[in-house]
Every structure is written in C-alpha cells, then in structure tokens.
Design a protein that fits this description.
alpha/beta; about 40% helix; OB fold (Dihydrolipoamide Acetyltransferase, E2P); 2 domains
C-alpha cells in the first residue's frame, strides 16, 4: 500500500469518526432539547401568577385565611336551646380572635338560591354540601355568605370572598345547628387556585425534564433495541423455516 493510499485511508477514517461524533452530538442535543421543551411546556401549563388585586376594595385590609384556621377544634352541637344557653364558648381562643376581622378565603360555592341568574346568599365550604358521593364538610368547614344587592354574582364553582367574619352557635326551630360562621361579603370572585411563582415553575420544569429524559432513555435504550432484536429474531426464524 502506497503512502498516498495510507493518507487517504486515514483521512477517511478521521472523517467517518468526526461524522459519528457530530451525529452523536446532534442526537444528544435533540434528546435533551425535546425533554427540556416538554418539561417547560408542562410546567408553564400549571403557572398561576398572582392576579390583580380587586380594584373595588383595599385588599390589604383583608387577612388571608383557610378553613384549616377555622377547624382547629372538634365541634359538638348543643343538645337543645337549654343546653345552648348554659354552654361555654365552643370556639377556642385562636378562632374567636378572628371574629370581626376582614378576611379573604376561598372554597366551593353552594348557592342557597339563584334569582335572575345571580347569587346573593350561598355557602362556602371545602366540598359540595349536597354531594352524596363524597365526605360532607364538617360544621367548621362551612361559611354562610351574604352579599349586598350590588355585589351579587353569577354562580361559581370555586370562589374567593372578601368580607367580615362573624361566628356564633345557633339552633333553628327544630333544634338543628345553623352555620357557625357567617360573612357579610364585600366581594366575591372566581378562585383561580393556588398561586405559583416563576421559581416554582422553573423547579417543576427541571423535575419534568428529568422524568421525560428518563422515559426517553428507557424507550430508546431498552425498548427499541429489544423490539429490533425480537423482530430480527423472528425474521431469522421465518427464513430458517422457509429453507426447510
């Protein structure tokens, strides 16, 4: 073999090696690029930025609370009006301290009635009060909300309210307990769910990217080779059978 032939062969091998490295690099970029784009897209779909504060009121006056803040105790209804009159305060101090406080809280809206497509009185709770297929909310997880006529709203599923919290144990004429909590609502809006930040989105995107990459790696490195080998094996068996 001449010196020139050796040089040509070396160049060919070098070119082939460079081409394989370039193809491998493009494959890695495509692999991680697809995983990163998928992870970012799925993470952004859960992004819920902090919405604009209601222009109708000074939201800084209202204390954000949850039903967990109102349900720190186990409420047992009084056995009739006589027992109610002599009963000590059923609300623990940390809950009683919220009475008269402007609060904002979100939950599920259960309208008491709908008039001309609008709701003025409704229950706000952790779940559907009338649902037969789910656990009913506890008495401490229900708020009766009353809105002024000018603040009436269309029926909503999830709602956030702003208003002054009142609390009192009362029984109706039949001796059944009435809602412990009441709010004279200043405003109600559809609840958008828990707010998420861009930092949270970035963390979610990183986690989803790794999960997608792991899934792709499993498919490309295990399932695809297994499928190819099984297909080649089946074809070889078919050819052997055909020759016999």
């Amino acid at each position: 073999m001449t010196h020139r032939a050796v040089q040509v062969r070396v160049r060919t091998k070098s070119k082939d090696s460079g081409g394989r490295r370039e193809a491998a690099l493009r494959g890695r970029v495509a692999f991680w690029g697809f995983a990163a784009v998928t992870g970012l897209a799925l993470a952004l779909s859960s992004y819920r930025p902090r919405g604009l504060e209601p222009a109708e009121l000074d939201s800084a006056r209202y204390r954000p609370i949850s039903f967990a803040d109102l349900s720190t105790f186990n409420y047992v209804p009084s056995a009739g009006s006589t027992a109610l009159a002599s009963r000590k305060d059923p609300f623990p101090p940390e809950v009683r301290a919220l009475e008269g406080t402007p609060i904002t809280i979100s939950g599920i809206m259960v309208p008491m009635y709908v008039l001309d497509g609008k709701v003025r009185e409704f229950y706000l709770s952790t779940g559907g009060i009338r649902c037969c297929f789910a656990d009913a909310p506890r008495p401490t997880e229900i708020i009766k909300v009353t809105l002024p006529p000018e603040r009436s709203t269309a029926p909503l599923e999830a709602a956030r309210i702003w208003g002054v919290l009142e609390m009192k144990e009362e029984l109706d004429d039949g001796g059944f307990p009435l809602p412990l909590y009441r709010v004279k609502g200043d405003l109600v809006r559809a609840d958008r769910g828990e707010e998420t930040s861009l930092v949270g989105v970035a963390k979610n995107a990183g986690m989803i990217t790794l999960v997608v990459a792991a899934g792709l790696g499993f498919v490309l490195n295990i399932l695809v080779p297994w499928y190819r080998e099984s297909r080649i094996g089946a074809q070889a068996a078919f050819l052997r059978q055909k020759r016999m």
